[in-house]
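[Meeting: bench + compute handoff]

Bench side (C.D.) handed over the final construct sequence. Compute side (W.E.) agreed to return the predicted structure before the next meeting so the bench team could plan truncations. Sequence as handed over:
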Amino acid sequence: MNAQLSERQKLAVEVLRLAKDRLLVSSPFLAPAASLLPFVPSPDALSPLSGTDAKAFYFNADHVLACFAATHEAPMHDYVHTLLHCLFLHPFANPGQNRARWDLACDIAAECVVVELCGPRPGDTGSSMEYARGRICGALQQTPLTAESVFELLRTNRFVDEEQAWQ
């Protein structure tokens, strides 16, 4: 597959491998899971930094490279976040659920663990996520936080501001 990648995509894969390597140095217990998720360019050029279907780690090469150029840091938070979605089986939601709310609940649950492994995200995005995560974690008062419990809490519609802050 590497021969079919553009130069930008190959460079983005190297940046993502750096994030993966940094994770495995600090959290070697995640090595088996990390080895099962190959890096694949997103078929949608407008997609966000990353995503998964539990078969691959999809990435937008332009976004990966732009973030790396701006921060001089490998996107470890995003890599760990995506990997955790797979470990927590988030891609396998009940089809009867509100998909957007389920995705948000999964993001919040995954991000709670990402913060424990990597520290808080920097920048404005990190501040917005931290605000929403703090309010929701405080309301649930449970450890570990699960996507199912966050989903049920979001269904009460008491956290509309937090849902908007996360976006």
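W.E. noted at the follow-up: The chain has a mean pLDDT of 82. C.D. will use this when planning the next construct.
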